[in-house]
Design goal:
By secondary structure, this protein is mostly helical. Helix content is 67%, strand content 0%.
Amino acid sequence: MTSTPDARTGAATLGKAADENFPVAPFFLPRAWRDDLMAVYGFARLVDDIGDGDLAPGGADARHLGLEPERGDDRLALLDALETDLHRVFATTGGPRHPLLRGLRPTVRRRSLTPEPFLGLIEANRQDQKIRRYGTYAELVSYCELSANPVGRLVLALTGTSSPDRIRRSDAVCTALQIVEHLQDVAEDLERDRIYLPAEDMERFRVTESDLAAPSAGASVRALIAYEAQRASELLDEGPPLVGSVDGRLKLLLAGFVGGGRAALAAISAAGFDVLPGPPGPTKPRLLREVGIVLNRARGER
């Protein structure tokens, strides 16, 4: 059976789930949860691919969003068009044009989701087109509030487990995961003329942009990465109480997110905090070990 262009467009994006630091929709979840999580992931991945210029060649995504294929490299125009299509997801008449947003619409209706988290993800990628350096850690955290925290809030909403305390802890975990990803991708981000290491911290550790462009990290860069990794680790400490506050399969899912972050930090540490040759990735045994540690700590938090 030949796949349709719409199916191929969605599959190319959804296929990236296997490359994430944490399981997106693991097999042990109920089918309905998996479907909803993948629908949300598809949207989030599409937004990031637009913001990073990583869309599949050919202009299919631009056409789906109502743009001419030659505007497929105009990231701000694509994000604007995506926001317009997102509003169609929530409209009572008509429907979205992009296949991934058409797939998102049943989830939005079934789970009574609101537009705000999705709009936050779009705004984060708009910010990426305009702001390429962050002066302070507080500024970086504010960016993470748009780029990462909405994902955790959506997971809680999808599973019907939102509460003020869980949202607070989820925000901390998601910010940590975003920081970890930034640490893994220092070299890749620099190639895109982006630096997510706060300028105030670079100055403190006497790290220059040219230091980040080196083939491997010197002592100052390693010390800076270790410092930011510790910050992320402290934020991840909100994970076990969050995991301990829920039951059943959701407990395993959240433990996978937190354990994935811890395993990625362990990989960064094992590389001597030298992230410049390429992203240090966690091994599967280390991921499983960290998930087990999170679950054990969560039992003591109940």
